[in-house]
Each structure stands twice: as structure tokens, then as C-alpha cells.
Amino acid sequence: MGKLKESGAATAEKRKLRFVGGRRIPLHRIMILAKGEKCVTIDEPRKIDFVVFPKGRDDLVELWIADHLAWGYGDDDTVEHLVLLQEKVNSYLEYIGGQLTEDFPEAEGRRVVIRIRALEGPPPVAKDAIRKLGCVLEDLGIGFVCEVGAGE
Predict the structure, then answer these.
(1) Interaxial angle between packed helices 124-139 and 75-94, expressed in degrees from 0 to 180 and rounded to the nearest 10
(2) Suppose 67 and one of 20, 42, 75, 145 were both cysteines; which one would form an S-S bond, judging by CB atoms 3.0 to 4.6 Å apart?
(3) Quick check: is 3 in a domain?
(4) E strand or H helix at 147, and its extent?
(5) What are the residue ranges of helices labelled H in 1-152?
(6) What is the number of domains present in the chain?
(7) Rounded distance, CA 20 to CA 46, Å?
């Protein structure tokens, strides 16, 4: 994976990742946004979408990536989508590396899983890249799940 790129003033001074989506929600609960509140998604690579402590799982913390984008029809669209995903995962790795337990002390000692919740399934070439990403994360001791659809 390449190094995370930052634009503008961010290159001059490294910023702390922002935990914006910021709700502790149990799995299978629908999240309702307040009026004017924006859901964080894959196209905001320097923000953490959701931190979830699954109900009944004291050994686990999940970091969700909300992927609402279509994969498109051409190679350029697929590459662009994979780059966004790579940037987002790189940010998550940075967050896991220290700030997660600062923001959520109860995450200490729990297994971390990155869960991508995608609107639609990727084309075959992207599926292979995502599978390889999952292998790399598992080698780092981080769980990985990619699910398609709204989920339960």
C-alpha cells in the first residue's frame, strides 16, 4: 500500500484524525442522523466513519467504513475506488496505532476488525485486491470483513 497523501496545509502540519461518525452503536441498530448532520463515508479518508462495540462481544471493537460509491464501468473508475479504499484503510491503521485507545479506553485489549459496508459488490479485479487487503490486515492481527448491501 502506498503512503497516505494529504493535501494543502495538511502536508505542512500533520493533523490528528477526526472521529466524526462517532457513535458507539451495537450491531443491527439503525443509526439516525440529526437534522443537518452528515454521515462520514469512504470519500473522507482522514475521518473515521464508525467505532462499534458489538453487543455481547467484550473482546471485539469494529471500525466501520461506509462505502456508498458505485464501482463504475471502466478500469479508471475501479482504480479510483480502490485508491479511496486504500487511503481510508491507511487512515484506519494510523488510528488503530494509538489514537483509538485514547478516544475509547475500553478498546484496550480488544481484537480490532475493519468492516467495510459497501453499497454494491466490486468487479472481479477489485474483489481480488480487496481479498489481498484482507490477507495483509490479518497478517497485522487486524480482522477484516467486507459486506455488500445494507446489512441487518
Answers:
(1) 20
(2) 42
(3) no
(4) strand 143-148
(5) 75-94, 100-103, 124-139
(6) 1
(7) 10
Residue 66 exposed, middle or buried by CB count within 10 Å (0-12, 13-18, 19+):
buried
The tens digit of pLDDT for each residue in 37-95 reads 455 678 788 888 889 998 888 899 999 999 988 887 777 888 899 999 999 999 999 99
Domain that holds residue 138: 18-27+38-148
pTM of the model: 0.73
> pLDDT digits over 12-46, tens only?
233 444 444 444 433 333 333 444 545 567 878 88
Rounded CA separation 95/123 (Å): 29
Beta strands in 11-142 (DSSP E): 18-19, 47-48, 50-52, 60-67, 111-118
Answer positive or negative: Cα dihedral of 65, 113, 13, 82.
Answer: negative
User: First vs last Cα of the chain: how many Å apart?
Assistant: 31
